[in-house]
Amino acid sequence: MNATAGHERGPSAFTDAQRAGLDTSRADRNRTLAAIHRLEAALSAAAPGREASWRTDVADALAVLEAATGDEQRNAAEPDSLLSDIARTQPRLRNRVRGLRAAYQMLRDTTAALSAELTDSADDLDVDDFRRRLASLLTAVRHQWARESDLVYEAYFEAFHRDLEVDARRQK
């Protein structure tokens, strides 16, 4: 976030690398959001009398979510990611970056555990309880995004003393 000496634009705007990191983060989030919508649709389908079909649809959607959040986590951990840039250039925010990365791993672990439970449970899966736990997972993903957005906006404002949304509208 610190666009200081050595960058042509100076401290008034994102560098090209920072802009690319922001674009990657947005693309990851869009993929994950599409996976969430697919999972929500599968979860909301009727299960009684069609448990096998319901399980297959939910398992497939959960696998897509697992892949999307995996991509999101890997990209956020890259040395040229937006989170890495924040951690590198704004030491005061490093612990929050570490917290976000740890939360990504917890979300991935929870997703994997729920996927395994769905696959391993025979006919004794409590569909209502499973839906509730997956809804909690999806809420946690959205909360993660909110925490990350707060961090990015705070880092941007601290580095440039301007609001990110106002700058984004000006660039359009």
Please supply descriptive tags for the structure shown above.
single chain, 172 residues, mainly alpha, 6 helices, elongated, disordered N terminus
Give a description of the structure.
- With 172 residues, the chain is mainly α.
- The protein has one domain (10-171).
- It is 77% helix and 0% strand.
- The protein has helices at residues 16-44, 51-77, 82-89, 94-120, 127-160, 164-171.
- Helix 1 (16-44) packs antiparallel against helix 5 and helix 2 (51-77) runs antiparallel to helix 4.
- The longest helix has 34 residues, at 127-160.
- The two termini are 21 Å apart.
- Residues 2-11 have low confidence and may be disordered.
Biggest pleated-sheet summary: none
So what's the overall shape?
elongated
SS field, number of helical segments: 6
Q: From the structure provided, what is the oligomeric state, counting identical versus distinct chains?
A: single chain
Question: What share of the residues does DSSP label as strand, in percent?
Answer: under 5%
Would you list the SSEs in sequence order as H and E? HHHHHH
Q: What is the total tally of β strands?
A: 0
Sequence stretches where pLDDT stays below 50 over 5 or more residues? 2-11
Secondary structure class reads: mainly alpha
- Can you give the helix content as a percent range? over 70%
Mean pLDDT: 85
